[in-house]
Amino acid sequence: MAFIYLNGDLVPEADAKITVQDRAILFGDGAYETMRSYAGAFFRFPEHLRRLRHTLDGLRLNLELTDAAITEGARQLVEANEIPNARLRLTVTGGRFGGEIRLRRTDPPNVIMTAVPLTPPPAEIYETGVKVLLNPWPVHSKATLPHLKTVNRLPHLMAKEDALEDGAWESLFCDETGAILEGTATNVFFVIDGVLRTPALSGALLAGVTRDVVLEVARGMNIPAHESRVEANEVAAAEEAFLTSTTIELLPIRAVDTTRIGTPGPIWAGLHRRYREVVTQETGSRDW
User: Fold this and answer.
1) Residue 82 belongs to a domain with what CATH number?
2) CA atoms 151, 85, 10, 47: torsion sign
3) Is the distance from CB of 263 to CB of 211 less than 8 angstroms?
4) Which of 54, 43, 48, 115 is nearest to 83 (CA)?
5) Residue 111 φ then ψ, to 5°
6) What are phi and psi of 106, to 5 degrees?
7) What's the whole-number average pLDDT of the chain?
8) Nearest-CA neighbor of 231 among 274, 280, 194, 188?
9) CB atoms within 10 A of CB 127
10) Which domain holds residue 278?
11) What would the pLDDT profile of 47-57 be if each residue is shown by its tens digit?
12) 285: left (phi over 0), alpha (psi -120 to 50) or beta
């Protein structure tokens, strides 16, 4: 029997229900995080909760449930479902719609957490790399929602579908000036002239937890790394490129549109190896 964490309790999935009048359903009003457990141990869980709180603050959505209670709920959820290598989804909704079409809420939020077996990408694509597309629809550089991890993901789903239909693995968003921002569910890194570069958070993109770990690892390895503007027309000069996220870790890119980057390179390989060493140090697991 599968269990769901709902508002502080573990309940059977068949009994886990919220109202059809929830603001997440009506307005896309809510925040979420995706976390990962390695052999039952969570990686960078506090950092994910910190980002969740940042999104909630941006949405003016108050959550009284403490981080300690959420963490304990996640532990119980993984244990009850017997899924040591889990993909956790934590969603905080705007709660029941009170009748006013405005940001102010009248009811408490619903807190939902699910755990399913993690299915990482096939091992062979870490050897060959993936193709990504540059999405033709720009994200405005002054947009605020890209800085928040909200449940409103339709533009991301549409861009991902475009990529898949074109034989690619991911789409990259750019702003109206041609600066690369991020993927639909990933951050992106390039190696240009031996320097590791990733779009700066001053652009319209989300601060990634895995992105931060990669920058931390790069500093420890004395790899020059810059958070800076990356132009779409600079892709042709990239010696290496890769995507990052909680579930894929570091996934190499072999091509952007028709621009060939090549097979996974030494900087990606060193960073990914060191990333997994950090995972082992913090979780005690080598179960990747």
Assistant:
1) 3.30.470.10
2) negative
3) no
4) 115
5) -115, 120
6) -110, -20
7) 97
8) 188
9) 10
10) 125-283
11) 999 999 999 99
12) beta
For 33, the token pair is 């995080």
What tokens does 153 get? 């993901």
CA atoms within 13 A on the CB side of 182: 25
Q: What is the pLDDT of residue 288?
A: 65
Q: How far is CA 268 from the centre of its chain?
A: 19
Question: Tell me: the pLDDT tens digits for 129-158?
Answer: 999 999 999 999 999 999 999 999 999 999
Residues paired with residue 174 on neighbouring β-strands, in sequence order: 180
| Domain-embedded: residue 288 | no
CB under 8 Å to 205, separation ≥6 — which residues? 146, 147, 173, 181, 182, 187, 199
Q: Is 256 in a helix, a strand, or coil?
A: strand
| pLDDT tens-place string over residues 184-232 | 999 999 999 999 999 999 999 999 999 999 999 999 999 999 999 999 9
- Tallying the residues shown for the chain, one arrives at 288
Please enumerate in sequence order all residues whose Cβ is within 8 A of that of 214, keeping only pairs 6 or more positions apart, or say none.
Answer: 189, 198, 244, 250, 271, 275
Neighbour count for residue 107 (Cβ, 10 Å)? 15
Total number of domains constituting the chain: 2
Q: Strand pairing partners for 231?
A: 179
